Amino acid sequence: MTKQQSEESSKLPISTNLPDNLKRIEDTFIDCTDLTILPWSYGPELEQTAFSVYFDTLVQTKKVNYMKESLQDLVTHEIGPATTVTPEDVMHFFTKNGVSAHSARVIDDFGLAVQQILDGNLVIFFNQWNKALSYNALGLAQRAITEPITEPVVQGPHLSTIEDLSSNIGLIRSLLKSPRLKFEFLTAGEESQRTISFGYLDGAVNPETLIEFKRRISDIDKEEILETSYLEEWIGESAYSPFPQVRYTERPDTAVAALLDGKIIALVSGTPTILICPGLFFEFFSTSEDYYHRWFFSSLIRLLRVGAFFMALMLPSTYIALTTFHSELIPTVLLLAILDTREGIPFPALVEAFIMEFFFELLREAGIRLPRPIGSAVSIVGALVIGQAAIQAKIASPVMVIVVALTGIASFSLPQYSMAISIRILRFPLMVLAATFGGLGVMIGFLLSLLHLTCMRSLGQPYLAMMAPLEINQLRDVFILIPKKILLHSPRNRHKHKKTGERKTTS
């Protein structure tokens, strides 16, 4: 169906002449070979006609046959005596009583009927009636609810979202049973017609943030949104920043915790990913599992992640700066060991680091794209073989191989993949600055990155919130997680608002 045909059909009311409706359906879905048009009859002598329309690739055949038989019985036995059933009786019955079947409705617009067919519904047209009946008969196979793939945990719920939007919202509502949990829906894309839903906890979300979120997605209805990550382009404020401004999750418990924390979540039909916004910098170092362990263990792990962040970002550049410009800062024994391993290496430290980083990133990407049974094996074996061969061929030194390996391991320890990608991007300009200006270049690059983070905002909120501006009472859940006995008695939400939008005082 073309865009022009869709626009023309949406302006047409349903005709009382059944052949006209049939002609419109055939013209609208021309060359759609999987469209099924099923004529049938009803009445005492089967003199009255109707036809059903559906895509046999979208609906369940059992539902189609059951609905047809049920409707024939309804028309014959409940609308009136078998000798008096007329199209007027059918029209009067459904207009007065509605449709009692689950997910069924009476529609009077031809464009809406077309959309119902595309959504996987069964639509029935009757002769001499300017309305149609639509029944939910969608029969697409759905992936079962399994453990999260991208966010596995040792302790905690093992439920993951799937590609069905209704199931995902149901999972969230089953964990957060509050009437203040609101979900709003909109449709995006003139061709794909994807359903987008965003949810928030009324009273916990910042009203200004919610208004700004709705404003930014208000013009998204004509865009083809195929995945949740498409929304980031509209929600984010700095399109050219390497740092992520929203979080992603496949865990319903993480989404519920974000809602309780005053966040907005967004879901798109056909994808299991949940978008959480606004995404603040320090939230990318925490996981839902942090709250399932004892506080001192979770605090230690969180500090380890922060250290891994700085290691993944600055370890190669620091090594380049020390070996190129500031060798006097290295202990003598260690310096002699480094010089011994670099003997015969034909490249400077920067070129050596670029070569090893390139091959490491190549192996990482190959491990992701290869089939899962062999992807991890190829990555590990490839890294071992290439690293050993590079050392023996005098292309890279053993110390550089260790530095690159530690950098990769540190980036793997970050919970959010989007933050790990940001570090991979920033690592290379820092290496260039280190090779050009030494430690001064590393410090300049770090300060420029910090300045950028300080100036950033996510949906109007400071990206470094809790640290810049400093909020002492919120530091209980940043680097060190205080005992839950104290944490749960203090206000969890960063935004507690009255109905007037006025901020409540927090203790």
TrEMBL record:
It comes from the Bacteria. One of its GO terms (biological process) is spore germination. The chain crosses the membrane at residues 264-285, 306-325, 399-418, 430-453. Keywords: Membrane, Transmembrane, Transmembrane helix. Signal peptide: none annotated. GO terms for cellular component: membrane. PANTHER family: LEUCINE ZIPPER PROTEIN 4 (PTHR22550:SF5), SPORE GERMINATION PROTEIN (PTHR22550). This is Spore gernimation protein. It comes from Paenibacillus beijingensis.
